[in-house]
Automatic annotation (TrEMBL):
Claim: NAD is one of the keywords in the record: yes
Protein name: Na(+)-translocating NADH-quinone reductase subunit A
Domain NqrA N-terminal barrel-sandwich hybrid per the UniProt entry, residue ranges: 5-98
Organism field: Candidatus Cryptobacteroides faecigallinarum
Keywords: Ion transport, NAD, Sodium, Sodium transport, Translocase, Transport, Ubiquinone
Any single biological process term in GO: sodium ion transport
NqrA second alpha/beta domain ranges (all copies): 114-259
Family: Belongs to the NqrA family.
Residue span, Na(+)-translocating NADH-quinone reductase subunit A C-terminal domain: 266-314
GO MF, one annotated term: oxidoreductase activity, acting on NAD(P)H, quinone or similar compound as acceptor
Residues making up the signal peptide according to the UniProt record: none
Catalytic activity: a ubiquinone + n Na(+)(in) + NADH + H(+) = a ubiquinol + n Na(+)(out) + NAD(+)
Ion transport among keywords: yes
Top-level taxon of the source organism: Bacteria
Length: 452
C-alpha cells in the first residue's frame, strides 16, 4: 500500500436515493443518441445522414480539428434523426437500434506485442479515443502529444455515485488490458488512486503496471483533478491525461474481443427514484427506457445524467451521457418559502454551515430538491469555499479572475488545475448563489481561445 494522502476539507451531501446493489433490468435500446455536447472543444463533422445503416462501432461523427478522432455508434441500426439547435448547431444523432445487434470487427489484439502507435490506431479507429481526457481544460486528448502521466480514480465520492466495485465487478481483466495498453502512451506511468478506507477490500488494488495512491477524505476526494493536485500538480506547459475505470473497461473489451462494446451498469438514483437500483444499458440510453423508476405525472422531476452537483439536466426526453454511469431523479424545487432563513428548526433540510440542526443527525438522508433557497446576491469574500475545496488555490480569486477575463490572474490562481467538477461543492455551499461552475467553464473557454 502506498503513502496515504489525507484531505481535511470536503463535504459529503446526505441525499436520499442510493442505488441498491441489484440489477433491476437490462435496457433493450429503442433509440440511442450520440451527443457532440458531451465533448468539450469538439467541432463535429457529420459522417452519416438520416436513413443510413450503421453497425455498433461505425463512425458517425469526426472532429474537424483532428479528423482522426471519430465517434462511433454504440448500437447497430438506422440513423433516425439528426437534431440541430440554434444556428444549426449539431446536438444529437439518434440511431434506432436493431433487434439483433451487429458489430464492426476491429480484431482481437495482443497488447504485449503492440507499440504506442498501434494502440493509438486501435482507439482512434474504434471511436474509443474520446475516453481519454486531456488536462488542462478537460478536452479530448491530442493523439500527437505524449502526456506527462495518465491518472485514474478508482473510487467516486460524488452524491449517490455508482459503486464502482459493483458496477465493474466482472471487468477486472478488461481494465488490466486497458491499463497495459495506455501505459505505452506515456513515460510517466498510470497513476491510480484508491479510497484508503476500502483499499484492501477492492479487487482493483491488485491491478498491475500502475503507480498506486490512497486518499482519505470527504467529497471531492474521488475527483481525479483533486488527486492530480496532490500527486503531481499541473503547471503551465504540462499535459496529463485522465481516464475512468469505466472507460478502461471499454478499452479492454475492445482489445480483448475486437468489439466496440459500451455496455455498462448504470445506477438510477435520487429522492424521486422508485426502488433505486442498477440497469444494464448503453451511453445514449433514453430516459424513457427507465420509466418504471419514476412517476412524472406531476411534471416535477429533474432528470440528471450524472450526479446532482455536476450532471447535465437532460429532461424526460433526454439521453444518458457518454461518460456517465448514473442517472439522478430529483424534485424540481418550485415552492416559495417565506422567511425560510428565519426558521432554524426545520428538521427536514440539510445545512452545510449548521444553520439548521441537521448536524445533530449526521446519518440522516434528506429528500433534497433543486430549490436554491434564495437568489443571486453580492459576491462576498469569505472562507466558505476553502472549507470544502481540498486544493491549495484561492477559489474566490480564481472565480473573480474568470469573471474579469483576466488571463494572467486566472493562471496565477490555478485555472490549469481545475475543471468545473472540482469547484462544484463551492457552488453548492455558496451563500451568494453564484453559478461558479458556469463561470469556471467560461474561463476555461477563454483560455482555450486565447492560449491556442
Amino acid at each position: 500500500m502506498s503513502n496515504n494522502i489525507k484531505l481535511k476539507r470536503g463535504l459529503n451531501i446526505p441525499i436520499a436515493g442510493e442505488a441498491a446493489q441489484k440489477i433491476k433490468k437490462a435496457v433493450v435500446p429503442g433509440v440511442v443518441a450520440i451527443k457532440p455536447t458531451d465533448f468539450r472543444g469538439l467541432l463535429p463533422r457529420l459522417l452519416v445522414k438520416e436513413g443510413d445503416k450503421v453497425l455498433a462501432g461505425s463512425p458517425v461523427l469526426a472532429d474537424k480539428k483532428s479528423p482522426d478522432i471519430v465517434f462511433t455508434s454504440p448500437v447497430s441500426g438506422t440513423v433516425e434523426t439528426i437534431v440541430r439547435g440554434e444556428k444549426r448547431k449539431l446536438l444529437e444523432v439518434r440511431v434506432k437500434a436493431d433487434k439483433t445487434q451487429e458489430y464492426v470487427d476491429f480484431g482481437v489484439k495482443k497488447v504485449k506485442g503492440m507499440d504506442a502507435d498501434q494502440v493509438k490506431k486501435a482507439l482512434l479507429e474504434s471511436g474509443l479515443w474520446p475516453a481519454l481526457i486531456q488536462r488542462p481544460y478537460g478536452v479530448l486528448a491530442n493523439p500527437d502529444i505524449r502526456p506527462k502521466a495518465i491518472f485514474v480514480s478508482a473510487f467516486n465520492t460524488a452524491p449517490l455515485a455508482a459503486d464502482l466495485e459493483y458496477a465493474l465487478r466482472d471487468e477486472f481483466n478488461n481494465i488490466q488490458t486497458g491499463i497495459d495498453a495506455l501505459a505505452k502512451l506515456t513515460d510517466g506511468g498510470i497513476h491510480i488512486s484508491f479510497n484508503s478506507e476500502n483499499y484492501s477490500g477492492t479487487p482493483f488494488h491488485k491491478l498491475e503496471n500502475v503507480i498506486q495512491h490512497t486518499f482519505t477524505g470527504k467529497h471531492p476526494a474521488g475527483n481525479v483533478g483533486i488527486q492530480i493536485h496532490h500527486i503531481s500538480p499541473i503547471r503551465k506547459g504540462d499535459t496529463v491525461w485522465t481516464v475512468s475505470l469505466l472507460m478502461l473497461a471499454a478499452i479492454g473489451k475492445l482489445l480483448n474481443t475486437g468489439k466496440y462494446d459500451m455496455t455498462r451498469r448504470v445506477a438510477v438514483t435520487g429522492p424521486k427514484a422508485i426502488d433505486p437500483s442498477y440497469v444494464t444499458a448503453l451511453p445514449g440510453m433514453a430516459m424513457s427506457d427507465i420509466n418504471e423508476f419514476y412517476d412524472n405525472s406531476a411534471k416535477d422531476i429533474r432528470f440528471i445524467s450524472g450526479d446532482v452537483l455536476t450532471g447535465a439536466n437532460v429532461g424526460e426526453d433526454g439521453f444518458l451521457g457518454f461518460y456517465d454511469n448514473q442517472v439522478t431523479l430529483i424534485k424540481e424545487g418550485k415552492e416559495y418559502e417565506m422567511l425560510g432563513w428565519a426558521k432554524p428548526f426545520r428538521s427536514n433540510l440539510f445545512s452545510a454551515s449548521r444553520t439548521y440542526f441537521s448536524w445533530l443527525t449526521p446519518n440522516k438522508k434528506y429528500d433534497m430538491d433543486t430549490n436554491l433557497h434564495g437568489g443571486v446576491r453580492a459576491f462576498l469574500m469569505n472562507d466558505v469555499y476553502g472549507k470544502v475545496l481540498p486544493m491549495d488555490i484561492y477559489p474566490v480569486y480564481l472565480t473573480k479572475a474568470c469573471i474579469a477575463e483576466d488571463i494572467d490572474k486566472m493562471e496565477k490562481y490555478g485555472i490549469y488545475e481545475v475543471l468545473e467538477e472540482d469547484l462544484a461543492l463551492c457552488e453548492y455551499v455558496c451563500p451568494s448563489k453564484i453559478d461558479i461552475q458556469s463561470i469556471i467553464s467560461d474561463g476555461i473557454s477563454l483560455m482555450m481561445k486565447e492560449m491556442a
